[in-house]
Amino acid sequence: MSHDEQAGIEKAQQPSSGLAVSIDDPVQNPGMPPHRTRMTDKDPKSAKAAERAIYGLFYLSVAGSIWAVAAYMLFPIEDMQYTSIRNNNMFIGLGIALSLLSIGVGAIHWSKTLMSDKEHVEERHPTQGTPETRAGAIEVFEKANEESGFGRRKMIRNSLFAALAASILPGVTLFRGLAPHDGNDPVALLKQTMWESGQHLVRDPHGTRIKASDVTIGSAFHVIPESLAGLSHHDGYLDEKAKAMVLMVRMRPDQITEREERKDWSYDGIVAYSKVCTHVGCPVALYEQHTHHLLCPCHQSQFDVSDEAKVVFGPAARPLPQLPITVDDEGYLVAKSDFTEPVGPSFWEIH
Question: Using CB atoms within 10 A of its CB, is residue 301 exposed (0-12), middle (13-18) or buried (19+)?
Answer without folding.
Answer: buried
